[in-house]
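Quick question, first post here. What does this chain look like in 3D?
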Amino acid sequence: MPTQSETAELLEWFGLSSYEASVFVALQRLGRGTAKEIASLSGVPRSQIYGAADSLQEQGLVEVQQSNPRTYRPIAVDEAIDQLKQRYERRTADAERQLKQIQNERRSREDEQKEDVWTVSGAAAVRSRIARIISDTEERLVVGIDENSPLFEQLEAQLEEKSEEGVEIVVVTESEVVANRFEPFATLVEQREPIGADVPRPQHVLIADDETILLGVQANEEETAIWSSGTNFAKVLIQLARSGMDQPS
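> Answer (accepted):
Ran it through. Tokens below.
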């Protein structure tokens, strides 16, 4: 025969408290009983019997006879199990609904984040972001730069290091100086004809692994860059940048 505690523990899985489960099992053994009798059989403190029994009554699992002393009687096992099953199914459905709502909210936030376009300002911040993008690149870096870029020296050193790691380096420039400096380690250096000083263009462009792009400009004498990664916006910018640099894909 199963013990009092074993059966009570099973009922707790259906949402009954420890005291409620123990009182209900004791009443099934007794058929009917007073608080004193229930406490003696269940091990639940007598002071806690009344609250647990009243809660079971509210849940429709116990009937109360207003006698002196008050007497409690459980409903039939089949009826009780049916009620507990329905409660379990309702709680399962509620949990599923709430978890899906949480999941959808998270996915909505992720979708918003996927369209993020970031702006960094100041020489230190721009250099730090460029260094991070280059460091995270695994396969291919496309760089558009001229010799007047304030990042010329930094890019040269970092790109040479990535080249030694086996990353493909493609450099597009109008400057013969840049072409000569990058040619020893770059996979491809494409020197373009100058398009004129009056044509607006970024000072430097980085495209990493065909999913991250950074455009650097000089705004009000301050270095500024916009960048995006893994977004539809980044894809569009990458296509536009490639067209502007006229570099092979």
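The CA atoms of residues 75 and 139 lie 70 Å apart.
The chain has a mean pLDDT of 85.
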